[in-house]
Amino acid sequence: MEFESEQSVYEFYNMYGRKMGFSSRKDTFEKNRRTGEITSRIFVCSKEGSRSTDKRDVLTIKPRAKTRTSCGAQIGIKIDRNKNKFYVNHFVEMHNHPFVRQESTHMLPSQRKISVTQAIEVDLAEESGISLKSSYELLGR
Description:
It holds the Pfam family FAR1. The protein is α+β, with helices and mostly antiparallel strands. It folds into two domains: about 1-100; about 110-140, no CATH class. Helix content is about 25%, strand content about 25%. It has three helices and five strands. It has helices at about 5-20, 115-125, 130-140, and strands spanning about 1-5, 25-30, 40-45, 75-80, 85-90. Helix 2 (about 115-125) packs across helix 3 (about 130-140). It is globular, with a radius of gyration of 19 Å.
């Protein structure tokens, strides 16, 4: 597959993650030293990797939940200099964790976005004196 920009690849992988039931995030990248442009990038499942040791007090009553499972799912892209487009150079589909149900995918970190029109509506509601909670309830309906 070919894409016009790195952002379009991220949006595609994020949409794929929403349909499948996982959240995605940007991982490593390589830049051209002279121009500073990104030449390759890897997008991964948000559960990729593992958390480092907890540096808080040993007597912590409620430790943080484990959010990383060393999931290996990812998509890697590189730039084709001749076409000036990004292409997918590798794709790993296998996840090692259960997916989120379709009804709850809007709550995943990479999916919690509002559109420009929704942001304008919230701003207009705030300027007219409607509370933020009421305007969000209105958007939800």
